Amino acid sequence: EDQVTQSPEALRLQEGESSSLNCSYTVSGLRGLFWYRQDPGKGPEFLFTLYSAGEEKEKERLKATLTKKESFLHITAPKPEDSATYLCAVKSGGSYIPTFGRGTSLIVHP
Amino acid sequence: NAGVMQNPRHLVRRRGQEARLRCSPMKGHSHVYWYRQLPEEGLKFMVYLQKENIIDESGMPKERFSAEFPKEGPSILRIQQVVRGDSAAYFCASSRDSTYEQYFGPGTRLTVT
Question: I need a surface site. Which of A74, B32, B58, B107 has the fewest CB within 10 A?
Answer without folding.
Answer: B58
